[in-house]
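Notes to self after the call with IL:
- keep both proteins in one doc
- input above output, always
- annotate only the second one for now

Protein 1:
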Amino acid sequence: MASDFVGYLGLLASVFLLIWLALRGVDIVFAALLSAVVIIATNQLPLANALLDGFTLGKLGAFTFAGKFFLLFTAGAIFGRVMGDSGAAASVATALINRMGAERALTVTTLACALLTYGGVVVFVVIFAMYPLGLQLLKEANIPKRLFCAALALGAGTFTLTALPGTPSIQNVISATALNTSLFAAPWLGVIGGMTMFSLGLWYLERQRRQAAQNGEGFEPGPRDQLIDTDIGALPHWLLALFPLVVVLSIIMLPRAIVAANISVEGSFGEALAFANSQPVLWPSIALAIGSTLAVSLFSRVRSSALNVMGQGTQDAILPLINTAAVIGFAGVVTQTAGFKAFLGLAVGSGLPPLLSVFGSISLISAITGSASGGLQIFMQTLAPTYLEMGVEPDVLHRIATIASGGFDSLPHCGAVVAMLTITQLTHKQAYRDVGVITVLIPVVATMVTIAAAALGVR
């Protein structure tokens, strides 16, 4: 009994240790390793199995994640570097500012990211593709970089991933597959949750933008940021500058659109279509590589140094990939412990009303693992049948669990948060307060609003 208590305490201590170290600015790879060692020691896990199968090579292992997403991170970083160095991002940003006004830069970022993710573009691709454009928007509008990070999180990591009906996100797919429901399950609950996140998020961003302006806080580039002076040299026309991005998005989204429209395609094109839809990581990587090649051919600013620019983009991918993988590896060790399984049982037996219990269960799993998709997968495999037996409707369980998974997953040790901060060259201390409000506090409020609506019979 005493050893069980030590194991439970060690599990909680390791999660808090990782969060504390991240907020203190300690290297996230070292922090994840140290926190994993605490779990291994306090839970008496076999050292070799925990480190090799859990942290590095298991289903949630660091190198399993890194191997799966290596091409996507690399292709995304190369595309971002080419678009930034060529002046294409600066051209599009200048056009947006001239037409919409500098004060709308955060709204533009949110809507652009939302459109991309709702269209099925992987979050990591959105971050890499939007970053060079966002830099120029912030420079022109003199908005702090931390708020761009929050706007990026709002558009790419909240309502389009968990709430809006029909979204092709992995979270929505996991719930639909496990419960045999539609991606459009409980659509009005999804709309209510999504609009709550969207409206509260934009209100918060605008409030913070005004406060920053009053306090004299403005844009400061990071050490690796490549900014183009829009007053010096000829930038490509904004329509031409936008063309590579449109091509990338079209390549990614066209196969999905054809399938959704039930268009019958045969022959070689049909085989290519099937390949595209079966490769959620490789296909966007190919699209990004095509976009980078197209941008190099179009823009003279990078044409003569194309190999060097692409090489620099490759280097840009390494740190975000390794940092994110290390946090995923930590979650792989967490799920090996008896304490993790015990916490699952505690959540189910809390005695709360079923929907509130669903919220508590999925929030606990997502918080410990630092992953909405990972937490939702575990929840659907282990706890969903229990809630169905309690009388929760499958469509309602689908929507509530999916929305709830996107709240406490985004604590400081979340892999996606670590990746975003690394790519944008910000620390947890600089940016996490705003990101946390957008990705944790507001989604939790939205989940509660959605649960209340479900209790009133909204579906």
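Protein 2 (the one to annotate):
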Amino acid sequence: MVRQPIPVIIVAGFLGSGKTSLLNHLLRNPQGARIGVVVNDFGQINIDALSVAGQVDSSVSLSNGCLCCAVDASGLDDLLAKLTRPSSDIDVIVIECSGLADPRTMVRMLLGSTNPRLGYGGLVEVVDAAEFDRTRQRHPELDQHLRFADLVLLNKTDRVSDGDRDRLLELVRELADGGPVLPTAHGRLDPALLFDRESVRQRRESARQLTFDDLVGDDCHEHLHAGYQSVEFTADEPVHPRALMRFLDARPAGVYRMKGQVHFGVPGHEQKFTLHTVGDFLRFQRSRWARSEPRRTQLVVIGSGLDRDRIREDLHACLGRPDAADEHSMLDVLKFIRG
């Protein structure tokens, strides 16, 4: 079985946007997960919620400044080492950035990490709907932050009129350049958007192969936020590696995450390939098929404003085997292999 790395989710946003509210919401609703946190200041973090989550002893406080001031990725590795050691039994890590931190620096540091137990869980940018126009004037770099984010939360929508909410959603989606944008109030969202419940179960249960129901998640349909959709795709025919990589290179607007298993069936590459994407981040992992496990592709696409029929059509168009003379058909896939 593939040993899944611990996802590290970066939460960024300017002062007062609602980052701490989001973190407290996740800690109060951990969905069975043990959540490790890295924060700049415990002053506004709900210590009672941390206690409920069992994470008080597995937190790193940076009271002397923002994390992005660390010199290089090895510095970040040192800060996260406590949370990723096996004895901590952590399922997911959330880093709450300082309000003045550059999220792009944070992502580069994380992707440069040499810790094999870490995985990129995405950059979540939180913006204040009530103060968005003024924040943009004070911090014009916000536009770049929105384009770089894997998921944007337009928070505090309960503090604006319906007309302003619709205007801001349209504007933020334009600035996010096709990235998913979710309206929220008080930082509340379904934790399943940020980390996989089945990955948590996988860590808690004895080793076993995941079923397609696991990949979709028991609560995926019932509890995903109304602004989000999921698309499931299953195929017994092998997937053409070049066609799939073209699909992944030009992901449909609004896609936040893709997960599942892929069967390429290319000679020399008959293993199971587990796919994980967050925003533009892409990773494959190879593992063996179980003896009785059918060789098939099973994928779940999660995002906002998705054209479900078009996504299924595009994925169906990826089916097929490469020409026998194409000896390098797997080359682009292998570039994104981990493990």
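Annotation: The domain at 209-334 is CATH 3.30.1220.10 (Hypothetical Protein Yjia; Chain: A;domain 2). The chain has two domains: 6-193, 209-334.
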